[in-house]
Design goal:
The chain has 285 residues and is an alpha+beta fold. It is built from 6 helices and 17 strands.
């Protein structure tokens, strides 16, 4: 029997109605299902499976009910698989969770009939080095950010690309993003929008103390290294806005294309420009 994993956003009261209807739809078609703890909490189900453990059960499909943050968490959990993820937007913006709730069952029926579209998004491998040694590693779908915490002091950074010196500058932080993440924090920091199909990464300084420092787009096969030359206390490396570790003076962060990618299930190939028109109101006066 086909198996579906369901991952939900916490504190969404409407899921108390949506989830029972979805489970009934799956059960009627002889689909088995697994629930993460957040999903199980809405229907008081027993034996939920931790989100990080769901890939071990090798489901045929992952359904994400929430916003982009819920999808980012699910994407990292399933990064080392090729399992398609159907993401339903229950949030406010939803650049990645393109499927609106009214299209949930239409998209599921298209998947059952093998008529859906799978969009592949590249991920970025990030490694933190401390005292010259590997300290921690992540795979990010959107971005990694080095930025200060509560103290209003800038940090000093040096950026290398493929071991070539680029610049040393003072700034509130640095964003390294994938094409998918170019419409996230990087866009808010005046970074460029990059088509998801482009093999590239983006380096975006956050509020640099130099008028000559601007965001830069590099080849997707490049290796970007950010050296922390001077740092105030409470400065953090954040992965996809969800996982964080405090940065120390002398740390360095390397970013390169990951060997893994995320497979997003779509009803149709909407394209980035449809998203920009609907989410950012491009072309409207």
């Amino acid at each position: 029997m086909p198996l579906v994993a369901i991952i939900s956003k916490p504190q969404k009261p409407e899921l108390r109605t949506i989830l029972p209807e979805l489970i009934a739809w799956l059960s009627k078609r002889d689909y088995q299902f697994l629930l993460d703890p957040d999903s199980a909490s809405y229907i008081d189900a027993a034996d939920p499976i931790e989100r990080e453990e769901l890939p071990e059960f090798k489901p045929n499909l992952v359904i994400v009910l929430g916003g982009d943050g819920t999808l980012l968490s699910a994407a990292r959990a399933f990064a080392r698989t090729e399992i398609p993820i159907l993401s339903v937007n229950l949030g406010s913006l939803g650049f990645l969770t393109e499927i609106p709730l009214p299209e949930l069952y239409t998209t599921l029926e298209a998947w059952c009939a093998d008529c859906s579209f799978v969009e592949q998004r590249s991920m970025m491998r990030t490694e933190l080095f401390r005292e010259g040694k590997p300290f921690q590693t992540w795979d990010a779908l959107n971005d990694v950010v080095v930025s200060k915490g509560a103290i209003a002091r800038m940090a000093d950074f040096t950026v290398d690309i493929d071991q070539q010196f680029v610049a040393t500058f003072r700034a509130d932080g640095v964003i390294v993003s994938t094409p998918t993440g170019s419409t996230a924090y990087s866009l808010a920091a005046n970074g460029p929008i990059v088509m998801p199909t482009v093999n590239a990464m983006v380096v975006t300084p956050i509020c640099p103390h130099l008028l000559t420092i601007r965001p830069i787009v590099v080849h997707g096969d490049a290796t970007i290294t950010v050296h922390v030359e001077g740092v105030p206390s409470q400065t953090y490396l954040t992965v996809d806005g969800q996982e964080a570790v405090e940065i120390h003076l002398g740390d360095s962060i390397t970013c390169c294309r990951s060997q893994y990618s995320v497979h997003l299930l779509r009803l149709r190939p909407n394209g980035l420009f449809n998203v920009l028109r609907s989410k950012l109101k491009w072309g409207e006066r």
